[in-house]
Design brief:
Elements (H helix, E strand, L loop, with lengths): L4 H9 L10 E4 L11 H16 L7 E4 L2 H9 L4 H18 L2 E2 L5 E2 L1 E7 L9 E5 L5 H9 L2 H19 L4 H15 L9 H17 L8 H14 L4 H10 L7 E7 L10 E6 L11 E6 L3 H5 L6 E2 L3 H4 L1 H18 L3 E8 L2 E9 L4 H13 L5 H5 L4 H7 L3 E2 L7 H4 L2 E4 L1 E4 L2 E7 L2 H6 L5 E5 L7 H6 L2 E4 L7 H9 L3 E3 L4 E4 L4 E4 L5 E3 L3 E5 L4 E4 L4 E2 L6 H11 L5 E5 L3 H9 L5 E5 L10 H10 L3 H18 L4 E5 L17 H6 L5 H10 L12 H6 L1 H21 L6 E6 L5 H22 L6 E6 L2 H5 L1 H6 L12 E4 L1 H9 L10 H7 L12 H18 L4 E4 L7 H10 L3 E4 L4 H17 L7 H7 L9
Parallel strand pairs: 3-4, 16-17, 17-18, 18-19, 26-27, 26-33, 27-28, 28-29, 29-30, 30-31, 31-32, 32-33
Antiparallel strand pairs: 1-2, 2-7, 5-6, 5-7, 8-9, 8-11, 9-10, 11-12, 13-25, 14-24, 15-19, 16-23, 20-21, 21-22, 23-24
Helix pairs in contact: 5-6, 6-8, 7-8, 14-16, 14-21, 16-36, 21-36, 22-24, 24-28, 28-29, 35-36
């Protein structure tokens, strides 16, 4: 091969900020403790195995092939021979620990082969169990354990998994053989098959290999090599890529591959396997939540093939193992300071821990767990913020059923079935039975109904309002993925019979049939399935939710969060959601009211009626300033091109012309055509409008200051704080022209009204040229009193991105998905700030402005202001606040607080915003 051991090792040591580590890292048994294990390199599963071993928890020994090897495999389709030699050494170490040999025909050692990326991706990548069984070693396993049924049960599982995962034989081909055998011998469950039945099944599985032209390897080491390749290859499987896209998982090195000695939960009635959470992942309640199966292997639990028993039932069956399990779970939660998701096996009453990781949880659970762990003294408020993800906040804004609806006939008289509560919340939608249909009809609002889901269903699950399955428990694939996404889920609903081919489900007790397109409601908190659409409501923001958002606001030196709002009701909602003011009021939105639009058009086309618009705006500003009393309200002067307010030529007729005081349609059409612009977004808009038609600026400023004066006259204790923003400036002269007009007009109104209105003047920086001359704009002084004219910069990152990147936001949807697929863009630059280009320019501008005007306020008011990744960048730069739409405010609050905490914990620049802004600016890096 072209790649050798040194090349692969260089890839690992070359990861920025990472120390050189071995390519193959042992764990458990005689393995030495790894100092400071790195999740980026070991993956989440590998890290958990190292940590469990280090604190004295029994894990079956094994080894981890690190994440950079995934890149090696992806590039070369193999690993270098030297690394395969390291794998052989690692296997030999496990053999010595356990006194068994891999591939030994008398007493064989078997392995599991599992994926494990840094970020958990439940069910998206591949696992193979019982690696090392062959026609020869299965007989040795039967003899050494004295359990022939167990040996062939393990063998048939390997044949199925290896065929599916490694060789691409459809799992259904094996499942059909299993179901056919069970039907023929008259049993319902796999556990009822005898050793002879399972031997027969293995023979039929070999025939499946023949039918697909595949060969099952009879060499144990060939098996493990192929399995490792399959696990690394699964990193780029369609389902894994889809999951990463949905969850915006980027910048990972790949998946690790964990090879671990098998322990067996399917040895008989003294063995079992299960999955559990240290706290309820749906509600956050501090109680163990999980499931287990007797005489089973782990995949049986998570795949939803058999409906398992609640974890509490294990206490009666395996009391000693259960007691040790409780101690292990407590120890892990104390160690990691987080809710744990664990997998375990009991082999002949001996407990083994197979995996631990921070558990996926709903938004409701995330807030309760973080809140409780602070009260328990396990976390500080700052640490607790890092346990709540932005998506958890978003989930809390999703609809739920109102408390009074549960006693109403529309709810209680229409409950048709009850399953397990897989994912809390309320979902209402049309029934669909396939992933394809769910994705196709997502806009209609759908509920995905399946017997059980698999990783291939992730696209349909994401597209659905909720998920309903008839099989599987609360740790099944459907429930785990649904909870991670905050989607309501009812699983293991045995009250219904699903026919996916006929696209129907039947309620067993009543015989009622539901077809595709019928509407149902799901209560993921109780497991109830309800006929028809049940009314929903939005949750209240109180309790742990409000408390933790308060912690986010209180983080020292964090970005504050304001809202974009264009009306009194919007401002009221923003304040309820915790906004510390209004960062953007778009005055043009007030002009589109049907009653006002004719007056707007009359002014644009004939220069008449501006005073009426002033009265409308005055009332609007008064409502907003009143709702935000004591908090700043940033009002942008009219920005869009005037043609946006004019009718289309096709809409104009004689009657329409008369409504605008035209004598005929021809004249109106001519006036509209004269206002045509080839590129209106770069035409007469923004400050250019105010310069060319100065009466517009005067009218808007008069309306703003008069609104504030009205409030002060009505209530002397009122505190209206208007900030007037000049849009789309490209240079000093444009800003100075409008800023002086704004200030003189405001001063005149204040003098006339004899009321002291406090106001500020600033500008929106969105044109690249303005960013480059920001120091000159910020330095402009009022010739009358010598004060700075510009008191704030607000970055309009939407237009700044368009102009800097040369991309139309309205047309970018045609190619951005392809760019992301090819790796040209990591993120959509209109959703997440382009830090290298647009972000660099923003940072340069901010530093230039602050360097000459130390009190200059700096903020972002584009939609990037609500994006968690962008907020992290703005925090690093040192901006004062971000502003976003009202319903994104809670997400932004958590993101801003968390970003500041992470920066401080990383030991980064602890200086205050102004010092940090200047110290890290491009001006200091020589890029100007």
């Amino acid at each position: 091969m072209a790649v050798d051991q040194d090349t692969a090792a260089t890839m690992i040591s070359g990861v920025p900020g990472k120390d050189r580590v071995p390519a193959v890292v042992p764990f458990g048994g005689s393995a030495p403790k790894v100092p400071n294990p790195d999740k980026d390199i070991l993956g989440g599963k590998g890290l958990g195995l190292q940590e469990m071993s280090s604190i004295g928890i029994d894990v079956p020994p094994g080894f981890t092939l690190t994440t950079p090897l995934c890149q090696v495999y992806d590039k070369h389709g193999d690993l270098p021979e030297e690394l395969w030699a390291e794998v052989d050494k690692a296997i030999a170490r496990v053999e010595a620990d356990l006194g068994r040999k891999f591939g030994d025909p008398e007493n064989p050692l078997l392995f599991s082969c599992r994926s494990g990326a840094k970020i958990s991706m439940p069910g998206m990548m591949d696992t193979v169990l019982n690696v090392g069984l062959t026609k020869e070693t299965v007989e040795g396993l039967a003899k050494s354990t004295g359990n022939r049924r167990f040996a062939y049960d393990a063998y048939r599982r390997l044949l199925d998994m290896f065929g599916d995962v490694v060789l691409g034989i459809p799992h259904e081909a094996f499942e059909d053989k299993l179901e056919s055998l069970k039907n023929r011998v008259g049993v319902l469950d796999d556990v009822d098959l005898t050793a002879e039945h399972l031997e027969e099944l293995c023979e039929s599985y070999y025939k499946v290999y023949e039918e697909y032209g595949k060969v099952f390897p009879q060499d144990a080491k060939a098996q493990v090599k192929a399995c490792i390749g399959a696990v690394f290859g699964s990193w780029n499987s369609e389902r894994a890529i889809k999951y990463r896209e949905i969850n915006q998982i980027t910048s990972l090195l790949g998946t690790a591959c964990n090879i671990q000695a098998m322990v067996f939960g399917n040895l008989g009635p003294t063995s079992g396997t299960g999955v559990a959470f240290s706290r309820d992942p749906g509600t956050g309640k501090n109680e163990l939540k999980g499931e287990y199966l007797v005489n089973a292997q782990g995949e049986d639990v998570v795949a939803g093939i058999r409906t398992p028993l609640p974890i509490k039932a294990m206490e009666e069956k395996f009391p000693e193992a259960y007691d040790q399990f409780l101690k292990n779970v407590f120890k892990l939660e104390q160690h990691f300071k987080d809710m744990q998701d664990v997998e375990f096996t009991v082999e002949n009453k001996k407990l083994w821990m197979l995996q631990c990781r921070s558990g996926k949880r709903t938004g409701q659970a995330a807030f309760m767990i973080a809140n409780d762990m602070v009260d328990e003294g396990l976390l500080t408020p700052e640490e607790a913020l890092l346990k709540v993800e932005p998506d958890h906040v978003q989930q809390m804004l999703h609809p739920t059923f109102a408390s009074d609806v549960f006693s109403s006939p529309v709810y209680k008289d229409n409950i048709i079935a009850v399953g397990l509560a897989g994912g809390p919340g309320a979902a209402v939608g049309k029934v669909v039975f396939s992933t394809h249909t769910a994705e196709e009809k997502t806009a209609e609002g759908v509920i995905l109904v399946r017997e059980n889901t698999s990783p291939e269903d992730v696209g349909g699950m994401w597209a659905s309002k909720g998920i309903l399955t008839s099989r599987g428990g609360v740790t099944s694939h459907a429930a785990v993925v649904a909870r991670g996404w905050g989607k309501p889920c009812v699983c293991g609903c045995d009250d219904i019979l699903i026919d996916e081919e006929a696209k129907t489900f039947v309620v067993k007790e009543t015989g009622e049939v539901f077809k595709e397109g019928d509407v149902i409601s799901l209560n993921g908190s109780t497991g109830e399935v309800i006929r028809g659409a049940v009314p929903t409501t939005f949750p209240e923001f109180k309790g742990s939710f409000g408390r933790i958002l308060g912690w986010a606001d209180d983080v020292e030196d964090s970005c504050k969060v304001l809202a974009n709002a264009d009306s009194g009701p919007d401002a009221k909602k923003a304040r309820e959601l915790g906004a510390k003011g209004i960062g953007l009021t778009r005055t043009e939105h007030m002009f589109f009211d049907p009653k006002r639009l004719p007056i707007v058009r009359g002014w644009i086309l004939q220069g008449k009626g501006l005073e009426f618009l002033g009265e409308f705006q005055r009332d609007d500003f008064k409502d907003i300033l009143h709702e935000m009393d004591g908090l700043p309200v940033t009002i942008r002067l009219l920005d869009p091109p005037l043609h946006e307010f004019l009718p289309k030529i096709s809409e104009v007729d004689e009657e329409f012309a008369k409504s605008l005081n035209y004598t005929d349609a021809h004249t109106l059409i001519k006036d509209i055509e004269e206002m045509h612009e080839e590129n209106p977004m770069l035409g007469l808009r923004g400050c250019r409008l105010g310069i060319c038609r100065s009466e517009l600026t005067v009218m808007q400023v008069e309306a703003i200051i008069n609104a504030a004066a009205d409030l002060l006259e009505a209530n002397p204790n009122a505190k209206p704080l208007p900030r007037i923003m000049v849009p789309l400036v490209g240079g000093v002269a444009e800003f100075e022209n409008q800023a002086l007009l704004v200030k003189r007009t405001a001063e005149r109104v204040i003098k006339d009204r004899n009321v002291n209105v406090v106001f500020e003047v600033g500008t929106m920086i969105e044109v690249p040229r303005a960013a480059l001359v920001s120091d000159k704009i910020a330095a402009v002084r009022d010739p009358k009193d010598g004060s700075f004219l510009c008191q704030f910069f607000s970055y309009g990152t939407n237009d700044m991105t368009q102009m800097t990147m040369g991309i139309s936001r309205d047309d970018a949807g045609e190619f951005i998905p392809k760019y992301k697929e090819l790796g040209i863009f990591e993120f959509d630059p209109f959703k997440t700030i382009d830090t290298e280009g647009v972000g660099w320019l923003l940072h340069l501008s901010a530093a230039k402005g602050r360097s000459v005007n130390p009190n200059l306020s700096l903020s972002v008011c584009g939609e990037h202001g609500g994006d968690p990744k962008s907020i992290e960048f703005f925090d690093k730069v040192g901006l004062d606040y971000v502003s976003c739409s009202p319903f994104r405010v809670p997400v932004a609050r958590i993101s801003a607080g968390s970003a500041a905490v992470r920066r401080q914990l990383k030991g980064g620049d602890g200086s205050k915003k102004q010092e940090r802004l200047l110290k890290t600016s491009p001006m200091q890096q020589g890029r100007t």
